[in-house]
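INFO batch 0412 | record 1 of 1 | parsing
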Amino acid sequence: MVGRLLRIGVALVLTAVVFYWSHPSKILAAAASADWRWLAAAVALVLVDRTLMAMRWIELLVALAPGSRPPLGAVIRVFFVSSFVSNVLPSVGADLYRAYELSRYDVHLAESTASVLMDRALGVLSVVLVAAVALPFATIEGRGELVVMLAGVGAVCAVAASVVFSERAAELVRSTAARIPIRLLHRVTAALTDAVRAYARHHGAMLRVLAMSVAVQIFRVIQAWCLGQSLGLTLPLTTYFAFIPLIVFIMQIPITPNGIGTTQLAFDRFLVPQGAPAAEVFALSVLFLALGFLGSLPGGLLYAFGSGLPASSSRETHGP
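INFO prediction complete | emitting tokens
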């Protein structure tokens, strides 16, 4: 409870500070003059990227133990409900929810968790790839800082990949956990490492998921560009491709609920030095957050009015 209140407090403080920096009256004027046609285009693209996000997780379930793959409807429901849950929980909390809910359908918890981890890891890798490809073509301020940040995120991706494809790295993870005198941690680490390692046998699925993840990032960049166009921003599209993937990554860091505050700070830190007016950039950051919330609404409806397949029913038709 204390941690949640602290995250809310940080979100409010960051948002208030950036709002004040950006001149409130100008922000309101910029938002009021937004072109609805560009806004509508951004909303339409949200439907595409959410569909791709659901498809890539479904693809990752190929590594589950034979006979344990849940019904397609159940998987889609879990995905969209977890997307809605991310509005009130940090991204880690939403991922845990997704893994737990999937485990209700005769999927081992380690396997369901591994599918969520791989979904997240490949999404992060797509951030690095899209921004790195765009960087040579973008004329931007702060190029060195961006390169360092991308290198850091890329290093994390390399470590994750080593656990999947290298038995030596996986054994290092197990042995490190074994030094901590908690037996439950030993069992969880071993099971989760084995589940993640299963993806080393599914190169085709991994490449397809990575391709879909890159497509998701491209659509999100275009969404931000459409929102910028609606506000009259004249930044080149290459600037959006260089910065928006990293901003999306920052939004996922579990510091504040749904990235509120950190999103505003990231937009201001990256786009204002490129010559964009602070008021329009703040309005863009709010619209970008709102777009994500809008994309999660189907999950809210499923949570409120839908019902998942009971675990007992799942065992009758999909049990081992």
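INFO post-check: Residues 28-307 form one domain.
INFO record closed
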